[in-house]
Each structure stands twice: as structure tokens, then as C-alpha cells.
Design brief:
Blueprint lengths: L2 E6 L9 E3 L5 E3 H18 L3 E4 L9 H11 L3 E8 L9 E7 L5 H18 L6 E8 L3 H4 L4 E9 L3 H7 L2 H19 L4
Parallel strand pairs: 1-4, 1-5, 5-8, 6-7
Antiparallel strand pairs: 2-3, 6-8
Bound molecules: zinc ion.
């Protein structure tokens, strides 16, 4: 059984990126990526994967604790879920970017990224404009220190008021979580 380690970013004392919704309430990245990751996890379990999650509640976990847990468990694939932030400006559309670092995980990250964007375009039927920010490489701890293939996806922008409207809504979290799950499944089980 393929082992997948899902890592919702931040948690506890680390809120991640901060944004504001249309009624001016603060939205924290840690509270968006947790339900997204939980929906992804549930969907992957439904497809027969063995899934572990770095945090299943709002608690602080260091990066090395996440990495060590995945390494010790012997995960086959690691997916880190974040939502982006920008200092200023605004871009129309829901932007997605994905990071990889180790040479053997480039194809994994590329496929997750492409399948996710395709899934979002189909799932949202043109209601939401999806902007492909591309595949990038970065020296992130969760990419560098993991022994298995690992990718970090940035799903939308917490700092964009339109994105937050989607990301903080449970129905959309469920849908985005499922699309992430299907993107992983298409890579891990391409002949299904
Ligand atoms: Zn983050």
C-alpha cells in the first residue's frame, strides 16, 4: 500500500500568511491548509492509500518533526500544502505554484501541479480563473530533508480577497481538497 504523508503548513503559534475576507475578518493560512489537507487525506484513504498527516488540529509542529516523522514512517510521497502571500498588489485569478528540489521529484511535482490546475479548471467550470505560476525549485526544508519524493504546493493567495472567499469556504475546501487528492492519484496510479 502506497504511503502518503500530507503536511498542512504552519499551525499553533505559527499562523502562516494573513489575509482579510470581504467582511474584514482576518483569515490565517494555518486554518485554510488544515481542512484542505484533511479533505485530501480522506479522499486518498478512500482510494486505498495509507495516509499520515503532520497535524490533524491547530498545533505547532517544527519542520524537522514533520520531515522526521515522514522519513521514519517510510512514506513514499510527501505533499506540503500552503497558501501564498504577497506584500502588495493584486492579481486577477486563482494562482497556483509548486516547488520541488531533489532531481527525482521534479516529475512528481510537475504532474501534481498540472493535474491540479487541470482539475481546478474543470471543477470550477470557468467560474474561477486559474493562473499557472509554474513549477519552481527552492531549498525548502521539507523538500531537502525528506528521503522520499516531496512537493510543496501553494494553493491561491491568502492575501487576495477573492481567493480567501474560496479558500475559507468549506464547500470549496472540500472540492479543492478532492482535486489535490485526484492530482496525487493520477501520478501515483496512472493506469487506474
Ligand atoms: Zn505557508
Amino acid at each position: 500500500m502506497t504511503k502518503i504523508y500530507i503536511d498542512p503548513g504552519h499551525g499553533g503559534k505559527d499562523p502562516g500568511a494573513l489575509g482579510y475576507n470581504s467582511i474584514g475578518a482576518q483569515v490565517q493560512e494555518k486554518n485554510i491548509v488544515l481542512p484542505l489537507s484533511q479533505f485530501t487525506r480522506r479522499c486518498l484513504i478512500g482510494k486505498g492509500y495509507n495516509v499520515m498527516i503532520s497535524r490533524n488540529e491547530d498545533k505547532y509542529v517544527t519542520l524537522m518533526e514533520r520531515v522526521n516523522e515522514a522519513n521514519n514512517w517510510g512514506a513514499d510521497a510527501f505533499l506540503c500544502v500552503h497558501s501564498n502571500a504577497r506584500q502588495s498588489g493584486f492579481v486577477q485569478g486563482f494562482e497556483v505554484e509548486t516547488y520541488w528540489m531533489k532531481p527525482n521529484e521534479r516529475e512528481y511535482a510537475r504532474q501534481i501541479h498540472n493535474h491540479f490546475i487541470n482539475g481546478m479548471e474543470i471543477g470550477y467550470l470557468g467560474i474561477l480563473q486559474i493562473v499557472d505560476r509554474g513549477l519552481k525549485t527552492e531549498n525548502f526544508c521539507v523538500l531537502r530533508e525528506t528521503k522520499m519524493i516531496s512537493a510543496l504546493i501553494e494553493v491561491g493567495f491568502v492575501t487576495d480577497i477573492d481567493d480567501v472567499g474560496w479558500l475559507a469556504d468549506e464547500m470549496h475546501q472540500r472540492m479543492i481538497g478532492r482535486i489535490l487528492c485526484e492530482a496525487m492519484d493520477k501520478y501515483l496510479n496512472p493506469n487506474e
